[in-house]
Amino acid sequence: MIIDENIAKKTALHLLQINAIKLNPENPFTWASGWKSPIYCDNRIVLSYPEIRKFLSHSLAEKIKKEFNGDFIIAGVATGAIGIGMLVAQELEKPFIYVRPKPKEHGQKNQIEGQFSPGQRVVVIEDLISTGMSSLNAVKALRDQNAEVLGMMALFTYGFPLADVAFQEVNLKLQTLCDYSHLIREALETKQIDSAQAEHLKNWRKNPSEWDAKDK
Q: For the whole prediction, is pTM greater than 0.90?
């Protein structure tokens, strides 16, 4: 995965400035998985900042232009990537759909929402990659409907090895604007964390399921 250093730096700074990403090594957050984490990421916050969402959606759109040619549609992964995905589709003047975690239990029981036809070429947009499971669930839903999924673009990834393996296993290319290493570097340079906290954050990423805030 190739990351543009300039874009990664600006993305990290934006996410930190608006508290879309919060760092708290001493008082960790608890994820839905039960993992204790010194970092919490909610990239939906970027939608409330016009200039930042413009920068991020433009950056994603430019990466897509460089990577993919011809006709394709944009798919956002619900719910976090619906907003940013639609902005990307608007900039590219492409159709937009979104993919639910599972089919609705009423109505037409759709999992894929929007005008979609089997066989279409699709670029998937995500706001955040952690384990990759929810992202790849959306990809499976599209492929089950015979979509040709060209790749996935995301704002940020933690860079967990298990996510890398999961994407490789389904033969899907992932690209992101920013990753965990760039984020920690910018937080350190802007003095939002000190060097000891930076090491603490790096240690968490090595084995997040077993990490203990007391292990410093």
A: yes
C-alpha angle 165/170/175, rounded to 5°?
Answer: 70
Q: Which H or E run includes 169?
A: helix 161-169
Does residue 162 surpass a pLDDT of 70? yes
* Percentage, residues of the chain above pLDDT 90: 83
Say what the pLDDT of residue 104 is.
79
Scanning the chain, the segments in alpha helix (DSSP H) are 5-17, 50-67, 82-92, 133-144, 161-169, 180-189, 195-206
Please give the biggest Cα pair distance in the chain: 54
State the number of CA atoms in the 13 A half-sphere of 151 facing the CB: 15
Domain 5-210 belongs to what topology? Rossmann fold (3.40.50)
For residues 21 and 15, the answer to whether their CB atoms sit within 8 Å is yes
Among 65, 11, 1, 90, smallest CA distance to 43 is for 11
Q: Are 172 and 139 in contact (CB under 8 A)?
A: yes
CA distance 213 to 38: 8
